[in-house]
Amino acid sequence: MPILDFHTHRLDAEGALISVDPRQFDPLPGRCYSVGFHPWHDVDRLTAGDWALLERCAQHPQVLAIGETGMDTLRGCDLDIQADAFLRHLQLAHALGKPVIAHCVRTAQRLLDVRRHAGITDVSLAIHGMRANERVARLLLDGGCYLSFGDRFNPVTLAATPLDRLLIETDDNPTPIGDVATAVAQTLQIPTQQLQDLVTANAHRCLTP
C-alpha cells in the first residue's frame, strides 16, 4: 500500500504508517504500523515482558517500522534511560531490517551518537515532527536521516531538506494529510501532486529493506 502519511496516531488512518505502543497493538486489515515505546511513556518502568512483547509485535507482517522511540530533554525520564531505550529499538530494527521512527527534541546529536557508538549504520532513521532550525536539520541530514514534516514546520528548514529525504505526516493533529501536502508543496513551490508522489516514493524507499 502506498504510504503518504508517514507518521500518525490515528488508528483508522489509511495510506499511513500508524504508530502504536505494542501494548495497544491490534492490527486492522489493510493497515500499516510502526511499534515502539514513546520516550514520554515511562520507559524507565518497562519490564522484560514489555520488551519481549515489542519484539513479537515488531515481527508482524503489517509492522513496517520500529517506533516511535527517541529522546526528549523537555519531557520524560532521565535522558540516559531514554538513550538506552532508543538503543534497544535500534538494535531490534537492525535485527529485523526495518527503519526507526524517532522523536527528537533537543537531542539530535545524541541520537546520532547513540547510533554511531552502537555501530548501527544500516538502519534508516526518520525524524518525525521536524520543526527544528536549519542547523539541526543539516546535522540530521548529514547523519543520513529522513525528515518528516507536519502541519507546523520551519519553512527555512523545509526548503533546506533534499527532496529525496522529505516525508510528511499528521502525527496526532486533526489536520488532514492532504492539507499538509498542500502547505508543504506551496512552500516548496511545486505542484501538490508532485509533492505527494515524491514523498510516497521516499516512504517506500525508507521502508524497503
Topology summary:
Elements (H helix, E strand, L loop, with lengths): L4 E4 L7 E5 L11 E4 L12 H11 L4 E10 L6 H18 L3 E6 L2 H11 L6 E3 L6 H9 L3 E4 L5 H6 L5 E3 L8 H12 L3 H16 L2
Parallel strand pairs: 1-2, 2-3, 3-4, 4-5, 5-6, 6-7, 7-8
Helix pairs in contact: 2-3, 6-7
Query: What coarse outline follows from CA principal-axis ratios?
Result: globular
Number of helices: 7
State the CATH class. Answer: Alpha Beta
Please give the domain count. Answer: 1
CATH architecture assignment name: Alpha-Beta Barrel
CATH topology: TIM Barrel
The residue ranges in which pLDDT falls below 50 over 5 or more consecutive positions are none
Sketch the topology as an H/E string, one letter per element: EEEHEHEHEHEHEHH
Calculate the terminal CA-CA distance, rounded to whole Å. Answer: 16 Å
Mean pLDDT reading? 96
**Main β sheet profile:** 8 strands, parallel
Structural class given helices, strands, pairing?
A: alpha/beta
Specify the CATH homologous superfamily.
Answer: Metal-dependent hydrolases
Backbone CA Rg: 16 Å
Percentage of residues assigned to helices: 25-40%
- Strand order within the widest beta sheet: 1-2-3-4-5-6-7-8
Strand content: 15-25%
**Count of individual beta strands:** 8
